[in-house]
Q: What sequence folds into this?
């Protein structure tokens, strides 16, 4: 057995860290931008809600469920042609972002819908009774009231994305997951595996603690 | 002010909530709607600001049929017909000031005017020391004061109150009802409130409608409805809150019910009638109290001796006598 931690290329590891953070940041931003309106639409069109539309809701729910039913590893492969069409390549950080967003946005949208459902019904009715438009209801009441829940949803999604980025390594995305697969698994370099897992753990911890702190800060319940 | 005619509302398959309801509420009155849970009170109240729409019939606010209004027109109606809620409906993420400011911000009022109006409203409901607190830091009564201040922000003509005291203890209930009563007097505000508590009706309502299974079982002034109820529902609901049960007696007394209202309740009617007519009067049961600002007494009397008819006639000049 090889001595541990002697053959590690720290420059590789540093680059992998940067790749992971870029994928995470880019994918999280787009996931929120796409998933938030989708979650709001799911909520508003739901049964007995403000803008209840049975068929729109059923159609949105079907798309979301379909995307959530497909295992991410399959989604990565199926998405390749679309990814090439969208960003010109299916490789590297840029190539990983479209499948990551398509995988995470439906998940985030469901969490958004759940967070919005937690908003007190009297509060929603009170806002309507003030003569608010649906847009004002969303911007002035639903989003501020659901903010702690929305931050918790973002934290959960970010952590899910960390493990998605690791899987994206399989199709040549780069990052810590890719390193773990190529060195740790395919070349039996257990030490590389340990270092990457440790780094991923640190990343998850940072996300969770920061998320929890933020929730506490904005919550006035 | 508010008139509804032939209003029907159904939910789902066969579930009738309101069934041909008619009602007229005058400007400047405090109108109570009482009924058991499931009688359709909440739905009825929500017709007045378009949160619910009638399946049949008309809902007229100052002659304007709001059952058919949509979009901007409906939102304009909602600024004139404000609402207060049982569980307050405050935004937990906003301070007292921000909560009260919300209807004005929604209406697009400019910032300096908002600040001025909000300060005035918070003073009006007695929360000047709590303006920067969050709802979670307030008591139930204080939260409801915020709810009322918020509802008043757009200077509405009508205030709809949905079980506004049901989540509060008796003492806080009294202070909230006093506040509403004062607003009615000082601003000429029309108040429509729904409740299942007879005491709320007794304390502040000018008129009351008793709702049963989506229909108005009885309507009239508070004194009429509470002191001589005709509908079975009203009687049953009164029996639950009335403390006194008449004493049963076997002696040869003429039993009658004697009701006085207003000034007569302050006079020593019974002793003067007894002295004048020589009839003995026994009090077998009854109660006294206030209906809004009016004193009342309703007693079950037992009369014995000669000249009972004369005594009954004397009693009738002070109040109502029923066998």
A:
């Amino acid at each position: 057995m090889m001595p541990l931690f002697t053959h590690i290329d720290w420059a590789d590891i540093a680059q992998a860290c940067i790749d992971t953070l870029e994928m995470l940041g880019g994918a999280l931003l787009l996931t929120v931008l796409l998933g938030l309106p989708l979650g709001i639409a799911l909520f508003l069109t739901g049964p007995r809600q403000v803008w209840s539309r049975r068929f729109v809701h059923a159609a949105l729910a079907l798309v979301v469920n379909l995307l959530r039913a497909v295992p991410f590893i399959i989604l990565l492969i199926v998405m390749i042609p679309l990814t090439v069409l969208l960003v010109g390549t299916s490789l590297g950080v840029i190539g990983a972002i479209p499948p990551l967003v398509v995988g995470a946005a439906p998940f985030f949208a469901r969490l958004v819908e759940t967070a919005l459902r937690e908003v007190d019904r009297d509060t929603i009715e009170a806002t309507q009774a003030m003569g608010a438009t649906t847009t004002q209801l969303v911007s002035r009441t639903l989003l501020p009231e659901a903010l702690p829940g929305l931050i918790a949803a973002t934290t959960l999604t970010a952590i899910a994305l960390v493990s998605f980025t690791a899987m994206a390594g399989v199709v040549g995305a780069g990052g810590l997951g890719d390193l773990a697969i190529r060195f740790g698994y395919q070349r039996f370099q257990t030490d590389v595996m340990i270092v990457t897992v440790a780094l991923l753990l640190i990343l998850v911890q940072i996300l969770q603690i920061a998320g929890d702190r933020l929730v506490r800060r904005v919550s006035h319940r | 002010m508010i008139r509804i005619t032939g209003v029907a509302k159904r939910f789902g398959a066969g579930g009738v909530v309101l069934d041909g309801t008619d009602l007229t509420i005058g400007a400047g009155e405090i109108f109570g709607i009482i009924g058991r849970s499931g009688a359709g009170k909440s739905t009825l109240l929500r017709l007045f600001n378009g949160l619910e729409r009638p399946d049949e019939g008309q809902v007229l606010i100052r002659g304007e049929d709001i059952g058919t209004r949509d979009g901007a027109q409906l939102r304009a109606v909602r600024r004139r017909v404000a609402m207060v809620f049982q569980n307050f409906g405050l935004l937990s993420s906003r301070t007292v000031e921000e909560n009260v400011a919300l209807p004005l911000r929604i209406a697009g009022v400019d910032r300096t005017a908002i600040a001025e109006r909000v300060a005035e409203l918070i003073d009006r409901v007695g929360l000047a020391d709590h303006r920067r607190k969050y709802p979670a830091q307030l008591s139930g009564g204080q939260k409801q004061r915020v709810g009322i201040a918020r509802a008043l922000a757009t200077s509405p003509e009508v205030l709809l109150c949905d079980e506004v005291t049901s989540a509060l203890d008796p003492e806080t209930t009294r202070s909230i009802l006093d506040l509403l009563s004062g607003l009615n007097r000082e601003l000429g505000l029309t108040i429509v409130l729904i409740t299942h508590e007879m005491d709320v009706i007794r304390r502040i309502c000018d008129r009351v409608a008793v709702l049963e299974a989506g229909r108005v079982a009885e309507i009239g002034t508070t004194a009429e409805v509470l002191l001589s109820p005709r509908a079975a529902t009203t009687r049953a609901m009164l029996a639950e809150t009335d403390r006194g049960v008449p004493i049963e007696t076997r002696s040869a007394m003429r039993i009658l019910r004697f009701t006085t209202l207003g000034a007569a309740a302050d006079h020593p009617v019974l002793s003067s009638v007894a002295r004048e007519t020589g009839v003995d009067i026994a009090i077998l049961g009854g109660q006294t109290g206030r209906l809004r600002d009016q004193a009342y007494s309703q007693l079950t009397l037992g009369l014995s001796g000669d000249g009972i008819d004369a005594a009954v006639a004397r009693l009738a000049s002070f109040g109502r006598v029923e066998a």
